[in-house]
Design goal:
16 strands; alpha/beta; binds 4'-deoxy-4'-aminopyridoxal-5'-phosphate; globular; Aspartate Aminotransferase, domain 2
């Protein structure tokens, strides 16, 4: 063959190959969310460059350009609130202060309750107790004896009320005591749990783990093992625990190479699933149906009023059906992460609620009857950890506490109680109850002209702010003053347990309104008529530039903090 012909045709083939690669890459880029949330690496780089800055007391109350009189009104309100919280939570504050220096997690949550330029002053002035003394019904009592409605829901574990779990644990302790904490053997409750979980999930096999994070890790590991493909797909904003591969963005210092973070509810994503050959699995957190493509809403990120959420059942169901279809055709493992929502929406979880079947389902939280747990259910073909024909090609997963007898019996009791008429009745009315309650709350907020609304997915609420404002994060402290206990993400999420009675919910509404009226009266929702959320974002950027970048040049990423002398000697 003519050598020049050979070179020519190789060049053409090479060019075609490169063009195809470029096309695939472009399609992948299109399927990523245009925001930083969709671009993990860029987000991490940018996050490292943002320097700290704090608003001094003088400017704290007028960062939105409010007139001096409004800033003074806010300051007076803030000082009154500070006095009220400090006297209410005196012991709680002392305990917080003594714990904080040694408990790393507490330092983190305390620092990120509100946007960082406000954080230190708020932390000093507006204490909220981190330690609780007792719980009963829907209420928590703190060290100072204050009783508050629990809207934090124990990270979602608390579906049926704290007393339900307390009694599951008590009974489990009695039942498991004959064997005691013997590990490495199975407790007799195991076969009941397995059978019940097979029936609930409609899947063949079950594996037990210690946390939701681990159940998800195991699902992804198995999917990679069986498909021989490298990548997992997660959707923009979705939380799946703190394991590196499912948290490729800010928060994880490691570079994550084998995760695609794609747009939720989007045709470009379907196209990528349809055309790429490296995707092992798709992870779904059905809670994202409330705020697709957004991170879990937290008040620490409330720079303005552009938090948005709206649950559209039909649209999300249709999306899941399309995903199911493409995953089936492309042999991609469809994994539902029901760690948060499982057993809250329905007995059969999100699979039953949306009428779509997954290949694997991760459960956790409430399934442990109040004790720590993670469970993975899946089709036999995806769950097996070895191949008979290739005995050394295995997918390893063990864990010392994986089937702890006390956890297994608490799970058994939880699963037994799911079948009782009382729990069945709660499930049957849950959807309409929480819809009616959310509508009633929104109606009352509108009537009172408070610029706040809620969006909800069943008993999970998130607070939305209707007028552009830089102080919305203050609302969590007004709610605290009214005896409403929130999680550390503040008004981002109210998690109601399903045992809230009508009277109790009405009382919560009354308190939310009182908090809203107090915050309004203190001028925090004042705004210049023309001010938009876009203006607020620009204000933040300007402040960052003037007070942050200009005052403290960002340190070099590679510059390490000096090692204190004592540590160096050690
Ligand atoms: N997946 C989802 C959807 C979750 O909500 C969580 C916890 N919030 C996890 C996984 C991780 O579970 P755990 O905290 O038990 O590790």
């Amino acid at each position: 063959m003519d050598i020049s012909l050979l070179i020519g045709s190789s060049a053409v083939l090479g060019a075609v190959y490169c063009a195809r690669l470029a096309k695939r890459r472009l399609e992948l880029s299109k399927a990523k969310h245009p925001s930083l949330r969709g671009h993990s690496r860029m987000a991490k780089r940018l996050a490292r460059l943002i320097p700290n800055f704090e608003y001094g007391v003088e400017e704290f109350f007028g960062v939105d350009g409010a007139p001096a009189a409004v800033a003074a009104q806010r300051r007076t309100g803030f000082e009154r609130l500070a006095r009220s919280l400090r006297s209410r939570f005196a012991k709680g504050k002392a305990e917080n202060d003594s714990l904080r220096s040694a408990v790393s997690d507490m330092q983190f949550t305390a620092a990120y309750r509100v946007p960082f330029p406000f954080s230190r002053y708020v932390r000093e002035q507006l204490p909220v107790p981190a330690v609780m003394l007792s719980a009963e019904g829907t209420q928590l009592t703190d060290l100072d004896g204050n009783v508050a409605f629990d809207l934090s829901g124990s990270y979602g574990v608390n579906v049926f009320g704290v007393d339900f779990y307390r009694s599951c644990i008590r009974e489990a302790t009695e039942r498991a005591d004959t064997l005691g904490p013997v590990l490495g053997y199975y407790h007799t409750s195991t076969s009941f749990n397995v059978t019940r979980l097979q029936e609930i999930s409609q899947l063949d096999e079950v594996s037990f783990h210690m946390s939701g994070t681990e159940a998800v890790m195991q699902a992804v590991r198995l999917a990679r093992y069986h498909t021989r493909r490298t990548h997992l797909v997660r959707f923009c904003g979705a939380y799946h625990g703190w394991w590196g591969d499912v948290q490729p963005g800010v928060g994880n210092p490691q570079r994550v190479r084998e995760t695609y973070t794609l747009k939720d509810i989007d045709a470009d994503t379907l196209h990528v699933l349809e055309t790429r050959n490296d995707i092992a699995c798709v992870l779904i957190n059905p809670l994202q149906a409330l705020h697709p493509n957004s991170d879990a809403p937290s008040d620490g990120q409330l720079l303005g009023s552009d938090r948005s959420a709206r649950f559209d059942y039909a649209a999300y169901k249709a999306w899941l059906e399309r995903l199911r279809d493409v995953c089936t055709r492309r042999s991609i493992v469809l994994i539902f992460d029901e760690v948060f929502l499982g057993f809250r929406l329905a007995r059969g979880g999100a699979q039953e609620y949306f009428g779509v079947r997954a290949d694997m389902v991760a459960y956790g939280k409430t399934l442990g009857g109040g004790l720590p747990v993670g469970v993975l259910c899946g089709k036999r073909q995806w769950m097996q950890r070895f191949y008979r024909e290739r005995p050394l090609d295995i997918c390893f997963a063990r864990g010392t506490f994986n089937t702890h007898p006390y956890v297994m019996t608490a799970m058994q009791i939880f699963l037994e109680r799911l079948e009782t008429p009382e729990i069945q009745a709660i499930y049957a009315s849950s959807e309409s109850t929480w819809k009616r309650r959310a509508e009633m709350l929104n109606h009352r907020l509108t009537e009172a002209q408070i610029p706040v609304q809620v969006a909800h997915l069943s008993s999970i609420f998130t607070v939305l702010y209707s007028t552009p404002c830089r102080y919305n994060w203050m609302f969590q402290y007004y709610l605290r003053e009214q005896g409403l206990a929130l999680g550390w993400i503040g008004t981002g999420r109210f998690i109601f347990s399903l045992n809230y009675s009508e009277d109790e919910f009405a009382e919560v509404v009354k308190r939310i309104l009182a908090a809203g009226l107090a915050m309004k009266a203190d001028g925090f929702w004042w705004r210049e008529d023309a001010l938009t959320n876009r203006d607020l974002r620009q204000q933040v950027l300007k402040d960052l530039w003037r007070r942050g970048f200009r005052q403290t040049p960002p340190p070099s990423v590679r510059q390490l903090p000096p090692v204190p002398a004592e540590d160096a000697r050690a």
